[in-house]
Amino acid sequence: MTGHIKIRKAQGKWCVRSGGAILGETTNALELSEGDLDPVIYFPREDIAMAFLDRTDKVTHCPHKGDATHYSIANKSSVTENAAWSYEDPISDVAEIKGYLAFYPLESVKVERI
Question: Which residues, 6 or more positions from 3, have their beta carbon under 8 angstroms from its beta carbon?
Fold first, then answer.
């Protein structure tokens, strides 16, 4: 792994919520630190209620991680466009984030340690 990115097991139990709904809770989250950016919590896909997420056409590229697919969160009260991302086929240096989802720090989306 390059020195630019560090991945470690996130300590404790983590939760992601949107629109009053709990989208997931896990004790198996990963914390990814990249350069000077704030650390990002990645949730195992199996710990997320994927019924709330709809894949979108948005794809972004990171030279250190690869191509990220994006998901909108749809719940009873709202849709939050492109609120989550996942590296379906990350580059080998960060292969451990495959099968994980991360969420943008939006007002309608809360990621927190509980």
Answer: none
Whichever domain contains 42, its CATH number is 2.170.150.40
| Domain that residue 11 falls in | 5-113
AA identity, residue 1: M
Eight-class DSSP state of 111 = E
Query: What is the Cα–Cα distance from 3 to 23, expressed in whole angstroms?
Result: 32
Q: What are the strands of the beta sheet with 40-44, ordered from one edge?
A: 5-9, 30-34, 40-44, 100-103, 79-86, 66-74, 53-62
Secondary structure (DSSP) of 25-88: EES--EEEEETTSPPEEEEEGGGB-GGGEEEEEEEEEETTTEEEEEEEEE-SS-EEEEEEEE-S
Tens of pLDDT, residues 68-80: 999 999 988 788 9
- Name the band, by pLDDT with cuts 50, 70 and 90, for residue 3: low
